[in-house]
Specification:
The model has no long low-confidence stretch (mean pLDDT 89). The chain is mainly alpha-helical. The chain contains five helices and no strands. The chain has one domain. It is 65% helix and 0% strand. It is elongated and about 55 Å long. Helix 2 (37-53) runs antiparallel to helix 3 (61-75) and helix 3 (61-75) runs antiparallel to helix 4.
């Protein structure tokens, strides 16, 4: 079987940090609901690992650093402070903040 493509395929461009942004939102919700902090930590670490694996960390360095800071604060039992760091990371990753300046 032969597959041929005619013309150019459309380029797909995803917003850098999409998975990290999603996990931050979930983490904030879970922390509000007083969920198990260990699960929140695992999910945030997994999202950072995924971000690094696909090469996005440098593109969203400020948000990644905020998430790392939140992880350290959660490890220290500082949930409110961690939530502030996650909120800052989320605002950094918002589509409006990521839009190119012309």
């Amino acid at each position: 079987m032969t597959i041929t493509h005619r013309g150019n395929l459309p380029a797909v461009a995803l917003t850098p940090g999409l998975r990290l942004r999603t996990e931050i939102g979930v983490a904030l919700h879970d922390l509000e609901q007083e969920a198990d902090v260990r699960t929140v930590l695992d999910n945030l670490r997994g999202a950072l690992a995924y971000t690094a694996a696909i090469g996005e960390t440098a593109m969203i360095a400020r948000a990644a650093e905020n998430v790392r800071q939140a992880i350290a604060r959660l490890d220290a039992g500082l949930v409110t402070s961690a939530s502030s760091s996650l909120t800052e990371a989320l605002s950094t990753l918002s589509p409006k903040a990521m839009a190119p300046v012309h």
